[in-house]
Amino acid sequence: MGSILEVRDVSHRFGGLQVLKGVSFDVAPGSITGLIGPNGAGKSTLFNIISGFLTPSVGDIVFLGQTTTDRGIAARSRAGLQRTFQTPQVFRDLTVRENLVAGCHMRGRTGVLEAFFGLPNVRREMADARRRADEIIERFDLGPWREIPAGELPAGRQRMVELARAVMCEPKLLCLDEPSSGLSTTEVQTLMETLERLNADGMTVLLVSHDMKLMEVTSMVHALCFGEIIASGSLHAMRESPRVREAYLGT
Amino acid sequence: MTLTLLVQSVLAGLTNGFVYGLIGLGIAVVFRGARIINAMQGDLALIGSVVAYLIAVSLGLPMILGFLLGVVAGGVTGFLVDRLMIRPTAKRRGTEDSFLLVTLGGAFAVSATVLLYFGRDSYVLPGIGGNAMVDVFDAAMRVHAIWLIVISTGVVLALRWFYAKTAIGQAMLAASIDPEGALTLGINVGWMRTMTLALGGLVGGLAGVLVAPLINIQYEMGLLLTLKGFAAAILGGLTSPFGAIFGGVILGLVEALAVVTISSGYKDVVAMTLLIAIMIAMPQGLFGRRGRLGG
Amino acid sequence: MTVSPDTQRARAWTWAITAAGLVVWAALPWFLSRGTIDILVFAGLYTIAGLGVSFLLGQCGIVSLAQSGFYGIGAYAAAYGTTALGLPIPVGIIAGMVVSGAIAAAVGIPVLRLSGHFLALATLALAIIAHVLFLELEWLTGGTLGIGGIPRIALFGFTFSTPFRFYYLVWPCAFALILFYTLLLNSRTGIALRAMRDAPAAAAVAGIPITSLKVRIFVLSAAVGSLAGSLFAHYVSFISVDSFAIDRAISFLLIAVLGGVRSIPGTIAGALFVTAAPNYLSRLGDIHPILFAVALIVAVIFLPGGFGGFVSSTWRRLTAGPRPSATGGP
Ligand SMILES: Nc1ncnc2c1ncn2[C@@H]1O[C@H](COP(=O)(O)OP(=O)(O)OP(=O)(O)O)[C@@H](O)[C@H]1O
Ligand SMILES: [Mg+2]
Q1: What number is the ipTM of this complex?
Q2: What is the tens place of the pLDDT at every residue in B177-234?
Q3: What is the pTM of this model?
Q4: Is the Cβ pair C205, A83 closer than 8 Å?
Q5: Which residues cross the membrane (chain C) (predicted)?
Q6: Ligand 1 pocket, A181 CB below 6 A?
Q7: Is B279 on the interface with C (CB under 8 A)?
């Protein structure tokens, strides 16, 4: 199989501001691919285009060999694409476990009327979802906060909840926007181990981050600067690349 | 359908359209300056017209005094609405819905108060130029209706000038577009909102005194006026004074057309359907650009 | 899964209070005047209609002022179905619910894409349209003259003809609906609804079909409103367009807001207030509509959680032990 995700010549403008200028790259299946770039480079905008929050002015997104540029957010996530947000978006009033149950909503089959009358299949499905949520909660060490509204957790923990929720429906591609910001050094270490474990289980990850430490888990990195890919290669190659250094350090 | 009948209904539609436009103007002023939909706008007009009626007809004082005090009453109510309802809601971090709900509550309170003191009867105020008519292509038009159109247009131009040229007008806009930025510039954002609501109240009161000679003043008139004014305002882009009048005229003409082609009973059905259709067909054009979702 | 002793204790209390409440409920009519029971019957009808509005607002963030329209459709379906078409009573009731649901779906699909105040005003516009149609479609509704002679509901030869009897019909319906709505709230669907209320962007990523779920809940709410309207028609046996004006839509919304939109049983409190208060306030003269409006304003500003929110937060404080700290590590 070729790539799991292809970004093809994507350009985007907000009014007069050209944020992305013909960005193209592929994400290989089974890889952890990184996307780095200075503030305002257009990384989050690209994520919004990949996940369906924005339609690019020009260009296409191909996911699992199918052009998905015009498909909705939910349709993409049903196809196996999950993302997190730069500012963590947990369901604040829901407990951690309910957050995870909501995360795999698309796997459910029962409808509103069945739930209204409390039919047995609804209960069965709920029990299954809970069980699965509990498994993931254990894997992400969130046990002590299971019954606590996610909005009451500190930001770092909210990120873990968001990540755990994204993993609930076993996505084929997981896109993470700055997952390590607000995390302590030990938490970053845990995050890296978690990502490597998920990757070993076959999940492909696309990672946006400033954090060069976190980037060590990647096998391939693309550097985005002012809406253009200026370099691609291993993290080591990026560190050596004069263009990347210039973009980051301005020297 | 004869030509006269057509002209007649177009004229009626035009007049009504300016009425809706005036209400929409108040809604646009308040939305522009405070990001709140004021569901009391029609009831502010009710207050204006009731005050004008009390002074000019019940007390028999000069008409012009009634007009002026009617407008002022609208402004004062707008001020009170901010102080008694909007400000406490904002303090408790009310949502978009809570602002709408409190102003809806205010609308019912006004309507119930008028019901209590005026009963279910309806009243008519004498217009400018009395009941004099002018001929337009064989069809008749009230002189007052012409005044309504002239004054509304004047108000729109005045508002344009106010927002574009005066310091306070600009401060009001700044306070609503970027409250934090305005605060750092030393603009008193809370006070600007109060001014905005008072200004919306003045426009509402003015709408009331101008409308009262054309339609019956009655305790229930506020809500429907609000809705039609809202339709006018969103048709015109929700923040634009000129747009509100323009939207009102379109709504009035469509209604007039519905009256001659369907039946007068269905006038409101047509207007409300149009309102819903506008909201669905152009939801983004109304707010300008879309809010940022992701990232 | 283990249940903490706190949760167990809270559950035991909830059951005890519910049981005690039911005993009081069952005994109440024996001690009350006909007029008071009549008010309680209306409180039951309004609880049913208000439940739909409350759930929509609290769980989906949809302000619906269209409920008076669906209430009217239910009433006219019951009236026209039984008097003009001679249909059996349940057929009329179900027809009303189906028609209401269909209209809600047809209108909801475009309208529910709107947000916030747009949506609220769109539903208000719908209520106005419904009211005008009730007035104009005289062949169906009797216009201002209304429809009389609507038969009473009878079950196994027992006719629910008096307020006393109807009390024992309407309240079990209301309780059943409270139970159903609670089941819905705690189901996967309910979790999805609350999720999209908290963070719509993340809910979309989780694959929650936001608009379609909202439409379904709107349809459900319309059907429930229609049921209330049908019961109302069979209770009073004469209906006219006055019962389905905008002020009815507003009382339903008031019920939801006063009762607390996040609290399902709170709707009962809201409905009791809205039906009983005018009766007691009317001693003060015609001032009661004003006080009503002021009550809405005060509730929105000072009691955003409504009666239900107030009770449940107090309740939680009384029953819950100390929580594990949100920040502490394992
Ligand atoms: N909705 C929007 N409207 C207008 N401009 C926007 C919008 N969203 C982003 N931008 C602009 O686009 C540019 C790229 O933003 P983006 O958030 O994609 O950058 P980023 O690479 O994620 O930066 P950061 O590292 O700060 O997260 C910025 O200049 C930003 O101001
Ligand atoms: Mg970013």
Answers
A1: 0.88
A2: 888 888 888 888 889 999 999 999 999 999 999 998 888 888 888 988 998 898 888 8
A3: 0.86
A4: yes
A5: 12-33, 39-57, 69-87, 93-111, 118-135, 166-187, 217-237, 249-277, 289-311
A6: no
A7: yes
